[in-house]
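Q: Okay, next protein. This is dTDP-4-dehydrorhamnose 3,5-epimerase from Heminiphilus faecis. I've checked the sequence twice, so it should be correct. Can you predict the 3D structure?
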Amino acid sequence: MEIIKTEIEGLVIIEPRIFKDSRGYFFESYSKREFDEKVRPIDFVQDNESCSTYGVMRGLHFQRPPYAQSKLVRCVKGCVLDVAVDIRKGSPTYGRHVAVELTEDNHRQFFIPRGFAHGFAVLSDIAVFQYKCDNYYHPEADGGISIQDGSLGIDWQVDPAKAILSEKDLKHSLLADFDSPFDFNTAQYAK
């Protein structure tokens, strides 16, 4: 796997080595040994999958400590614009984001460490989205910031008139009104 660093420390794009021939293709989508060596040591404990139609926007979600989650995400059918926003108080990149297009053709994955809010917008007719988490989901630890917060400067590539959001996601606060539970100077992972 090739690791592509982004402008925000810790957020990385993973590009697999794909073997193609007349039968189709093969690639290793995950290797704990290689991930631990090239990205960071981590133990994923839960895999999730969603299926959405064009215009669906999910996020920007996170889990509050002590149930914070890292995510390794990919789109196995269709195309999504995937976004991670730095929400670590005191971070030099606080409020900044990285956006990456994940598709069934590019097979890219995006690693989002703890301390980031995550969301995506579906750009194809249908998208099947998968993600690994390093902590179990706890509903009481649910958190989010508004996916429609214009101050974040995210071009979601979806016409706002065609955007489809859940009631829950419509209620998240703007970044300016948000008190982050993450601190840049506090370790997010046990040593």
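A: Here is a summary of the prediction. The mean pLDDT is 96. DSSP finds two helices and 15 strands in the chain.
Q: Noted. On to the next one.
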